[in-house]
Write a structure and sequence with these properties.
The complex is a heterodimer. Chain A is mostly beta strands. Helices cover 0% and strands 48% of the residues of chain A. Classes of the chains: A mainly beta, B mainly beta.
């Protein structure tokens, strides 16, 4: 049973550059979530997908952020024109939501982004 | 609307002592409640969850939590702390029948002294 994986684990970039993160959920899970976590805070919701459909986006998700889940499997999160304030841990989680299944989210190890 | 308040950003205990981490929630509908643990530079791991069944929920690593509707609380306890319990703990709430998007508390750092 492989868990949620994220790649890369660490990313250092210069301000203004674009970055892309990948998340591979648990294979049978139909929901995929992206969160951002800054130091000393709990995870903050960014967006989520049910299968390939992006159903909700937080107001935290500015125009510079875009997420995709093209075939309902893995997902990518892209940040364009990075700013120092984007420095954070980006967490991905997946879950199986159905009629009789309680949503429990399983988290990946995160991608730590540092913008210089 | 939903929210979570975790009282105390840091809790310090001696090895073998009782662990008590406090969580109070606010929800306009019956909630689901969760406790997660996070070790440094890692993702979150589910400790336990309340989903409207038994009010006393047992989780992994000897942790348990009790749902008290009258107090809107879901405190996490462990009878005897171990050094390996030192980590960040997050309480989270979701609303039943909704999009299941959780709201997390700010976390409590558990420090265990030998």
């Amino acid at each position: 049973d492989t868990g949620v994986s994220q790649d890369p684990r660490h990313k250092i970039t210069k301000r203004g550059q674009n970055v892309t993160f990948r998340c591979d959920p648990i294979s049978e899970h139909n929901r995929l979530y992206w969160y951002r976590q800054t130091l000393g805070q709990g995870p903050e919701f960014l967006t989520y997908f049910q299968n390939e459909a992006q159903l909700e986006k937080s107001r935290l998700l500015s125009d510079r952020f875009s997420a995709e889940r093209p075939k309902g499997s893995f997902s990518t999160l892209e940040i364009q024109r990075t700013e120092q304030g984007d420095s954070a841990m980006y967490l991905c989680a997946s879950s199986l939501v159905g009629q009789r299944v309680t949503d429990t989210q399983y988290f990946g190890p995160g991608t730590r982004l540092t913008v210089l | 609307a939903q929210s979570v308040t975790q009282l105390g950003s840091h809790v310090s205990v001696s090895e073998g002592a009782l662990v008590l981490l406090r969580c109070n929630y606010s929800s306009s509908v019956p909630p689901y409640l969760f406790w997660y643990v996070q070790y440094p530079n890692q993702g979150l791991q589910l400790l336990l969850k309340y989903t409207s069944a038994a009010t006393l929920v047992k989780g992994i690593n000897g942790f348990e939590a009790e749902f008290k509707k009258s107090e809107t609380s879901f405190h996490l306890t462990k009878p005897s702390a171990h050094m390996s319990d030192a980590a960040e703990y997050f309480c989270a709430v979701t609303q039943t029948g909704g999009s299941y998007i959780p709201t997390f508390g700010r976390g409590t750092s558990l420090i265990v002294h030998p």
